């Protein structure tokens, strides 16, 4: 879509399997930029901390050479532990300093806050990773641990705001902010003037929620959106297995948009009615060793979304 449209579709390095920066099979970050541009995107997310270099000159030139911009940085780490606060704030400072030094993405009609955003996700807990998608058996944080996580999120959002960056909290399958009760509790504990939300249609559906209803319910907090789709046959199978979230992704639970079970025509109708403006990032997590189909998959997702009204 052109920059004059209310919505611009972007992508993220997780489409190439970039989630764990210690994985030895990740593609070079320049390859991700090359293929994002080749796929017709004008923007993408920065990806997990430690993947792209924290050098505004190097990254800025690489983006400029390819006609790309960065629409969000990412905190993907343990938000629960009070002992991790220093690490979280260091990441916040370094990521925000970098993304604000790069050329700013365009502002769209209806967009509440300018990009780039800081997408904040909890991760790194085996007991929740193996319970991803299973609200009935996933352990919940006790009140003190929950309060500690909220304090960490507040600290991240306040620090990002000092850099002029809007934080958006992203419920993520396999983390301690995943299910309907946790999202509702989070919305009550984090004021809207401090941080918004980035809801992800795929994570919502993976975890037993209706993406259309969730987008409607949290509309007043919705600053940014992720799109993905879920293969129903794979999802049904892996829900019967003891499996980590990204191992499920490696088995193909995320598929090109339009080939899964999420009702994107209903989402398009809702977002049109509500007047959403800004960025929507396409994601399709996978094993980085299975990235040969990335360009075809992204083309299929873009084509379907275009035909659906995005």
TrEMBL record:
Top-level taxon of origin: Bacteria
Designated name of the protein: TIM barrel protein
Species the sequence originates in: Paracoccus aurantiacus
Cited InterPro entries: IolE/XylAMocC-like (IPR050312), Xyl_isomerase-like_sf (IPR036237), Xyl_isomerase-like_TIM-brl (IPR013022)
Domain Xylose isomerase-like TIM barrel as annotated: residue spans: 33-304
Pfam families documented for this protein: AP_endonuc_2
Coiled coil: none
């Amino acid at each position: 879509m052109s920059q004059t449209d209310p919505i611009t579709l972007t992508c993220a390095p997780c489409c190439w399997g970039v989630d764990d920066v210690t994985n030895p099979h990740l593609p070079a970050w320049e390859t991700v930029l090359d293929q994002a541009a080749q796929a017709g995107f004008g923007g993408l997310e920065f990806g997990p901390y430690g993947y792209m270099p924290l050098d505004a000159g190097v990254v800025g030139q690489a983006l400029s050479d390819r006609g790309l911009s960065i629409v969000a940085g990412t905190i993907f780490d343990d938000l629960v532990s009070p002992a991790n606060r220093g690490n979280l704030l260091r990441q916040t400072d370094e990521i925000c300093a970098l993304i604000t030094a790069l050329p700013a993405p365009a502002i769209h009609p209806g967009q509440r806050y300018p990009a780039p955003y800081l997408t904040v996700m909890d991760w790194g807990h085996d007991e929740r990773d193996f319970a991803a998608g299973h609200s009935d058996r996933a352990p919940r944080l006790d009140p003190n641990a929950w309060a500690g996580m909220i304090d960490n999120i507040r600290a991240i959002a306040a620090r990002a705001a000092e850099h002029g960056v809007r934080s958006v909290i992203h419920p993520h399958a396999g983390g301690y902010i995943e299910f309907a009760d946790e999202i509702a509790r989070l919305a009550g504990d984090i004021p809207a003037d401090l941080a918004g939300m980035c809801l992800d249609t795929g994570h919502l559906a993976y975890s037993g929620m209706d993406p259309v209803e969730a987008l409607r319910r949290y509309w007043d907090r919705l600053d940014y959106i992720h799109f993905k789709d879920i293969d129903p046959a794979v999802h049904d199978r892996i829900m019967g297995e003891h499996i980590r979230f990204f191992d499920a992704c490696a088995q193909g639970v995320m598929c090109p948009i339009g080939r899964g079970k999420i009702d994107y025509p209903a989402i398009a109708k809702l977002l049109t009615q509500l007047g959403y403006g800004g960025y929507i990032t396409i994601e399709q997590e996978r094993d980085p060793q299975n990235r040969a189909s990335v360009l075809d998959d992204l083309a299929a997702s873009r084509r379907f979304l275009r035909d659906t009204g995005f």
